[in-house]
Design a protein that fits this description.
The chain is an all-alpha fold. It has helices spanning 2-23, 30-44, 55-82, 87-107, 114-140, 145-182.
Length: 183
C-alpha cells in the first residue's frame, strides 16, 4: 500500500512540475513554482529514500530558475535598448506584454485545441503586446514612427527570445527533477 501511495504522489508531483513548466509560456513564474515544488518534495520525503531529491538538486533548481528569470528579463530589456528605445518604450513593452498575454490566452482557446491554442495565443499576443506597447511608448517620447516601430519590433523579438529562454531553463529543471526522482 505504501508503494502505491508513493507512486501516486510521484505522478502528482511530476504532473505539477509539468503544469508549472507550461505556466512559463503564460508569463507566470513557472520555474519558481518547480523549485518550490521540489523543495516541498525534499522536505516531506525521507532522506534515506532513493526517491528523495537532494539538497544539491534543490540548489541547482533554484539557480536555474534565477538564470531563467535573468534571461527573460535581459532579452526583453536588451531587445528594446539595443535599438535605442526609451524608458517609456521599455515600460510600454512590459505593460503591452502583460495585457497581450492575458488577451491571447482567451483568443487562442478556440484554435487548435484549448491548451495548445491558449499557449500559442498567449505567446503570440504577449509579443504583439510588447510590439504595440513599446511602439506607443517610444512614439509618446517624441520619436519618429519608423524608429518607434523598430523599437517595437525589437521589444517583440526580445519578449519571444526571453520567453523561450526561460522555458528552456525550465525544461532543464523539469528533466533534472524527474531524473533525480526516479534514478
Amino acid at each position: 500500500m505504501i508503494a502505491i501511495l508513493f507512486y501516486l504522489l510521484a505522478v502528482l508531483f511530476v504532473a505539477a512540475l509539468i503544469v508549472s513548466w507550461i505556466s512559463n509560456l503564460f508569463g507566470l513564474p513557472g520555474n519558481w513554482f518547480m523549485a518550490v515544488l521540489a523543495g516541498v518534495w525534499y522536505y516531506f520525503t525521507d532522506a534515506a529514500s532513493v526517491h528523495h531529491l537532494g539538497l544539491v538538486v534543490i540548489i541547482v533548481l533554484v539557480v536555474l530558475a534565477g538564470i531563467g528569470e535573468l534571461v527573460e528579463f535581459a532579452a526583453s530589456v536588451l531587445g528594446t535598448k539595443k535599438v535605442g528605445g526609451s524608458r517609456r518604450a521599455a515600460m510600454g513593452s512590459l505593460a503591452g506584454s502583460f495585457v497581450g498575454a492575458i488577451a491571447g490566452g482567451f483568443v487562442g482557446i478556440p484554435f487548435l485545441n484549448p491548451l495548445i491554442g491558449m499557449v500559442v495565443g498567449t505567446v503570440l499576443f504577449a509579443c504583439l503586446g510588447a510590439l504595440v506597447g513599446a511602439t506607443l511608448g517610444e512614439k509618446s517620447d517624441g520619436s519618429e514612427m519608423s524608429k518607434s516601430l523598430k523599437v517595437g519590433g525589437a521589444a517583440a523579438a526580445g519578449r519571444f527570445v526571453g520567453t523561450m529562454g526561460k522555458a528552456a531553463f525550465g525544461a532543464a529543471m523539469l528533466a533534472l527533477a524527474i531524473l533525480n526522482l526516479f534514478i
